[in-house]
Amino acid sequence: MSAVDVSQVPAGLFIMGAIFILLTFSLLSLGILRMFQLRFKAGWLSFAGAVASGALFGILLDRWFL
Prior knowledge:
Elements: H1 11-36, H2 40-64
Helix pairs in contact: 1-2
């Protein structure tokens, strides 16, 4: 196993990836929390927001960086 050179990754791609990772996983964890609180509508909306942010990330990644 060798080290991976990440010096060629653009700063914009790194920042966008970090923001979308934080957004997606915070919405997923919030949805799980809402489900345990028996607030099912808010939980499903959080899950839908996580899926929507993942889809938006894919669209922006395709348009700007690929």
